[in-house]
Amino acid sequence: RCCALPYVFKMDTTPESYLDLFPLDAIVYLTPDSENVLEDIDPDKVYVLGGLVDESIHKQLTLRRAREQSLRTARLPIREYMVKAPNSRNYHSETLAINQVFDVLSTYYETRSWPAALRAGVSSGKGYVLPDTAEQ
């Protein structure tokens, strides 16, 4: 699957904060607790992935951090494109690991399809499925 993507993603590390590297109005902090839905990816924006957060212990930590830094926030459109799948634990979570968020964003950038992107990054273990797979 990795080799099918025609894109190469370059990653640099730096001790500097993203707040020092980019203008505040260019940063969009992605957090599952945002009230704003990410509708499209703007190539002029910098998307910060909120990080690995234990959803039960640190609820809304990433949203609070973004607000403290006066950053725009957004969440992936999981509720808009997916449905809650019935499961024995009644478990449903929109909190994803960094690699899952990256898979969603890179697939969306490639396909411009939220259903395809969410299928690529949101595992059924999260309790959400696309409507066409809800009965399966």
TrEMBL record:
Record-level GO cellular component terms: nucleoplasm
Domain of life per record: Eukaryota
Gene3D superfamilies from the UniProt entry: 3.40.1280.30
The organism of origin for this protein: Callaeas wilsoni
Reactions the enzyme catalyzes: guanosine(9) in tRNA + S-adenosyl-L-methionine = N(1)-methylguanosine(9) in tRNA + S-adenosyl-L-homocysteine + H(+)
InterPro entries recorded: MT_TRM10-typ (IPR028564), MT_TRM10-typ_sf (IPR038459), tRNA_m1G_MeTrfase_euk (IPR007356)
E.C. code: 2.1.1.221
Gene that this polypeptide is encoded by: Trmt10b
GO molecular function: tRNA (guanosine(9)-N1)-methyltransferase activity; tRNA binding
Residue ranges of every copy of the SAM-dependent MTase TRM10-type domain listed in the record: 1-129
GO-annotated biological processes: tRNA N1-guanine methylation
Annotated keywords: Methyltransferase, S-adenosyl-L-methionine, Transferase
Transferase keyword on record: yes
Protein known as: tRNA (guanine(9)-N(1))-methyltransferase
